[in-house]
Write a structure and sequence with these properties.
- The complex is a heterodimer of chains A (499) and B (251).
- Chain A is an alpha+beta fold.
- In chain A, 40% of the residues lie in helices and 17% in strands.
- The longest helix of chain A has 29 residues.
- Chain A starts with a strand and ends with a helix.
- Chain B folds into 2 domains: 67 residues, Alpha-Beta Plaits; 138 residues, Rossmann fold, CATH 3.40.50.12280.
- Chain B contains 9 helices and 10 strands.
- The chains are: A alpha+beta (499), B alpha/beta (251).
């Protein structure tokens, strides 16, 4: 075997990952994806071993619920054939490897900087000198937006090449938010510090990223979380999904100048996040999820309170949706705007909502289940048009689905396991991978420990890492005035991408 | 048309009439109170992920605190977080809550520049810059503008261009990659202008303090007019902080 097979949240010795030649490595991993829409690359990264770079590639198979892991040792200055020339799924992963380790690629079609990381190989490259694509023509003009945008949002630069009002090409340049999160996981030694770092990866996906970190840590330490701990995480993930989707519906209404929808959805988010505060003391769930601990036990009183809140929330939410989706002026902005085809999302390997909008079923709640999802028998919500309308419809349908799951979950609040958990120290020389379906899509955290059981490498992949390219494709041939609504309908993370 | 009116009717009144005295639901972690109980101070200091706790006397620096509540959970008789969300101030030292401090955290009127209340007392336009923020404080700033908190009823708005702004609101620990855009934006705002830091990350770097990927030199160059702590800052902390800075209010 030239690869090893694991399941979600499984820890294996690093020595179990076969080390193969680069030729075998490229054939194996690109071969996995050939004509196999059920497979995609969940993580592909390099880590330094002496003066060499160890590449580890993780391919998830949604049918068998397995993850295929293989590795290869190369040198920093090597010039290699790219995976990307054979399959576009690997495009950004290889750009990242190039940026961080100076690995050259002979035939990568778009070898551009990813985020100008602090530990980048070539320090002479700076974010102010990004090599934008441009087209020489008297009939085209360029529009640059950002890094600071008009609203209260995170920074990133968008460079449009337009033919009149029509967008021919969009290039998205990110990296402004880079805080060196992955290095901080290693630099901080206390577990609470590392958990706090995980909470700050993306403030809109606090539960998602902290759950992924907790799963990694518990798996490394051989700790089996009790039912009440996993219950709290599953519940919090679905509440987070409800809250953000509701907020996004508001944002989409803002961008089509539909004031009523904007106000109503905006205010409907409040009872959900206020409930998170009643439960854990923070509206965005910071402080709620902790490895090995049920920090704020979910009580039957909280369950009653939540049931009340949902009963008030639901009629208002449904009434507003009914109105929005029969409004011709809204529908004309949603339908056939910002289309990404099934072939395109498959070729670039999008995840989560940005895959499900175009008929590609990618949902780790079903394919690589964790927490209490095996009991919920999750059925992903799939739409087929890949336009703004599909993305908005998914949000509406997922809010309803989450509400159903939450109502099921709070029927039976589990007993709190009182005994304080005792952690073993992490297993030495081990590798762990954790997949969590956040509201945006698949979150992947990987960790490698050294011979003393200390973290030697930590890798975080936010779903936005895959999905930003889908936004760039979505706006092609659209009017530039439709860009805001396309952007909001994806609502991707800047800090999660830039880490 | 009638459907719209029906929806508006079903929504009822959503705005919070008195943002200075509204109650927050549940177990919000706001201004802490530290008792004089004797505890193992070394353990207390050690349990904090961001070194916000100091001894002699025991104190918590809300500019560094991530409000995770770990200290209150471990030492419930020593530290208690109250639901007081009015924790914004213009005095960095006032953010340090010491053993026995029970009083509110307030703006020091002596330190407010003369022109602030004279010029911005009735209308304040702000330009927000996220410089490595994780989108939590950004979402709460947006929430401060929703129909419930409705900060624009006080004449406080967030504007698109720095040329239209009276001040800058910074979130995030200020990354190296954002340092230059932040400076350019600040320079584009006409004088006189304010600097407001929102969230623990902006005030001290928070969990990212000392991280080499940051460049916080901008903050050394100018006086800071307002600190709004929180992780993220609560919309009521933001609303009250900005109002207390810019105008005299009867509370």
């Amino acid at each position: 075997m030239n690869y090893t097979t694991i399941i979600n949240n499984q820890t294996i010795p690093v020595s179990d990952i076969p080390e193969i030649s680069y030729n075998e490595f490229i054939d194996l991993n690109t071969g996995f994806l050939t004509d196999s829409p059920e497979r995609h690359c969940v993580n592909y990264f390099g880590s330094r071993v002496g003066n060499q770079v160890r590449l580890i590639c993780c391919i998830a198979d949604d049918n068998t619920h397995q993850i295929y892991v293989s590795s290869c040792l190369i040198k920093s200055g090597d010039s290699l054939d790219s995976f990307t020339a054979r399959n576009f799924n690997f495009e950004k992963f290889e750009r990242e490897i190039h940026e961080n380790f100076g690995v050259g690629y002979n035939d990568h079609p778009w070898l551009k900087p990813v985020r100008y990381a602090k530990n980048r190989f070539d320090q002479s490259q700076t974010i102010a000198n990004y090599p934008f694509f441009s087209i020489e023509s008297d009939e085209l003009h360029e529009v640059g937006v950002g890094p600071i945008h008009a609203g209260i949002i995170e920074p990133g630069h968008f460079r449009f090449i337009c033919n009149g009002e029509q967008i021919l090409h969009l290039e998205i340049q990110l990296g402004y938010q880079h805080r060196g999160i992955e290095q901080q996981f290693l630099a901080k030694k206390k577990l609470l510090q590392r958990t706090t770092v995980a909470e700050s990866i993306a403030g809109d996906t606090v539960v998602g990223h902290t759950t992924a970190f907790s799963h990694v840590w518990e798996s490394l330490c051989g700790f089996q979380p009790s039912r009440d701990i996993e219950y709290a995480r599953t519940l919090a993930l679905e509440l987070e999904r409800m809250a953000v989707h509701t907020g996004d519906l508001s944002a989409v209404c803002t961008d089509i100048a539909y004031q009523l929808g904007s106000s109503v959805f905006g205010r409907l988010r409040t009872p959900i996040i206020n409930f998170m505060q009643e439960w854990g003391g923070n509206r965005l769930s910071k402080g709620l999820i902790r490895p090995g601990r049920n920090q704020f036990p979910f009580t039957p009183e909280l369950a009653n309170r939540l049931a009340e809140i949902l009963d008030i929330y639901e009629p208002d939410f449904l009434e507003m949706n009914e109105q929005l989706f029969q409004l011709p002026s809204a529908l004309s902005r949603f339908e056939r705007t910002g289309v990404v085809s099934y072939d395109d999302v498959l070729s670039i390997g999008t995840v989560g909502m940005a895959a499900r909008m175009s008929g590609l079923c990618r949902d780790t709640r079903q394919s690589h289940p964790f927490g209490l999802y095996p009991e919920l028998n999750h059925e992903p919500i799939i739409k087929h048009h890949g336009d703004v309308y599909s993305r908005v419809q998914i949000r509406k349908a997922e809010v309803k689905q989450s509400m159903q799951y939450i109502r099921n979950l709070i029927q039976h609040v589990p007993e709190i396991s009182g005994n304080e958990s005792v952690f073993q120290s992490p297993k030495p020389n081990s590798f762990t991978l954790s997949l969590v379906e956040g509201w945006r899509g698949e979150i992947c955290h990987c960790a490698i420990t050294d011979e003393l059981g200390e973290l030697a490498y930590y890798k975080v992949k936010d779903p936005s890492f895959h999905n930003w390219l889908a936004l760039a494709l979505a706006v092609r041939n659209n009017e530039i005035s439709d860009f805001p609504i396309c952007n909001k309908s994806f609502n991707l993370s800047y800090s999660g991408h830039d880490l | 048309m009638f459907d719209n009116v029906k929806i508006v009717y079903h929504q009822g009144k959503q705005f919070i009439p008195d943002t200075a005295n509204a109650k927050v639901p549940g177990i919000f972690r706001g201004r802490p109170v530290i008792s004089s109980e004797k505890v193992n101070e070394a353990e207390l200091v050690d349990c904090c992920p961001v070194d916000a706790i100091a001894t002699n006397p025991v104190s918590i620096d809300l500019g560094k605190c991530t409000f995770c509540g770990e200290c209150a959970k471990r030492f419930p008789n020593k530290i208690r977080f109250t639901t007081d969300y009015k924790i914004s101030t213009n005095d960095r030292n006032r953010l340090i809550v010491k053993e026995g401090d029970e009083g509110p955290i307030e703006i020091d009127p002596q330190m407010v520049r003369n022109e602030i209340r004279r010029i911005f007392g009735r209308s304040l336009k702000l330009r927000q810059v996220s410089a490595g923020g994780d989108n939590s404080c950004e979402m709460e700033l947006n929430a401060a503008n929703n129909v419930q908190f409705d900060i624009s009823r006080y004449g406080i708005d967030f504007v698109a261009s720095p040329r239209h702004a009276d001040g800058i609101v910074i979130t995030g620990p200020i990354t190296e990659n954002m340092a230059e855009p932040l400076q350019i934006c600040y320079d584009a705002i006409p004088e006189p202008k304010l600097i407001v830091l929102v969230g623990t990350d902006a005030i001290s770097g928070g969990i990212h303090a000392g991280n080499p990927a940051l460049d916080r030199s901008f903050l050394d160059k100018y006086p800071i007019d307002l600190y709004i702590p929180g992780n993220p800052a609560h919309p009521l902390t933001i609303v009250n902080g900005l109002l207390d800075l810019t105008r005299k209010r009867k509370i």
